User: Fold this.
Amino acid sequence: MKATDLPLYYNAVDILERNLATRADKVALLSDTRPEMTFREISNEANQVGNALKKLGARFGDYVAILALDCPEWVATFFGAIKIGAVAVGINTLLKPHEYAYILRDSRARVLIVHASLLPGIDSIHTELEFVEQIIVIGNLATRPGYVHATFADWIKNEATELTAAPTHRDDFCSLNYSSGTTGEPKGILHAHKDYPLTSQLWGVNVLGLRESDRTYAGAKLFFTFGFGGNLIFPWYVGASSVLFSGPPRIATNVFDVVTKFKPTILYNAPTGFAAMLAVPDFKSKYDLSSLRLCVSAGENLPAPIWDMWKNATGLDIIDGIGSTENFHIFLSNRPGDIRPGSSGKPFAGYELKIADEEGNALPRGEVGNLLVRGETAAQFYLHQYARSQRTFLGEWLNTGDKYYIDDDGYYWHAGRSDDMLKVGGIWVSPVEVESTLLSHPGVLECAVIGIADQQNLVKPKAIVVLKEGFTASDTLRDELIAHCREKMAEYKRPRWIEFVAELPKTATGKIQRFRLRG
Ligand code: 3UK
Assistant:
């Protein structure tokens, strides 16, 4: 399938509405917050949101931000927004208020839909949001702050359930996600309407083999395109159902509870998610996994031992594929019936891959080089970041920032990053951000943060710290530094280990050499 196979004027609300003709009354969404919803019901609600957004003044090309736990309102907002030609901005719910402020300003979102439980994160910054005109709250509020326009239910309740889709071009943007880099602000990545059916077909159908009878569930949330694509767009593209869970994703017993209760056939998770599930004692006797037919892992490298342990314990295969927010989803993957545990699999139709040297020349098989990808679902630039865009989006090719090599049988193996970025539990952590946070503690003179493999061979941040005079290394100080990091940053970014040293290795120009610390 190619982009030109789609109509020139195409709106990705089609991913939802294609189901209305033949299976309108089929369950489309299951969730822990509301009763099951059919395709018809969620489509009606999306139309109400579209109408309500128009009344607030939202127009074609405007940005609508969603800061919410996974729930049907998230989904209705997304499709309501894109149906009127707006761009939906799915925000990571684990960030801190200053990061929300940055994203809301950078995207110039005019409307913010926020979950009641996340409203405290907006409370301290709402006066800084010069572009946000209206704030709508999902859920109930004991008292409604003056800056909140309405609750979601009140906002849509009198709206019509009919709405005509805006005549969006297939290349018009419909979604914006933010991804972190080593330094500087997060990078806004825009995807177009065409990217949704393309990724659904190219990987969801052609590689994973999704079918109408499937029911998906993802440990990865809707704000992350891994979860959003895998757990909503792809299943709906084939008429399958999706399970949404509003609770914290990182607790393995939650994932088991959801699987036992909602009986998905496909489970997506990050490698750390599978490792955490394996660590739950007696999970096979306590939970019912019999509904599952396949698992998918992405976000970071899945070590072969975890693949083997999962297979031995559950009998289930894990399909590991590498994806990125820049490509929207997976572009290199294992596939059912053709899996090499520990590898990222092989290329599939729709994406061309190249392992290249620094000049972009293809390297001989077996050599480690930069992984470049060419495909039709790539974003075109980072919003408001000209120089970074030029380094990543190289004409038709996209530089993934990953190092790869190909084995004798043609499988691709991840061999690290070309920057210092870490993937922790499938989500980016910038060592520079953790270092600056540690440096904001009065006792820290210098520090370096590196990725260290834990017992399961999964990467976690470790900090190597030089203390200021007057401070002495101790377990108490170590705990204090970790607490400091938890307070200032999303919790998953905190160092798991701290080593105190007298000095750090540096270059002649005084730059800390993180690679030497990695040993
Ligand atoms: C790393 C992997 C080894 C790799 C993502 C599936 O992770 C996703 O998107 P991000 O933008 O990060 C992209 C980077 O993460 N990575 C992802 N998957 C793997 N490394 N093996 C893997 N299987 O460094 C890549 O460049 O956060 C994954 C679908 C959608 C996504 N957005």
User: Anything to note?
Assistant: Residues 179, 225-226, 298-301, 320-325, 329-330, 344, 400-402, 414, 417, 423, 426, 428 surround 3UK (CB under 6 Å). DSSP finds 17 helices and 26 strands in the chain.
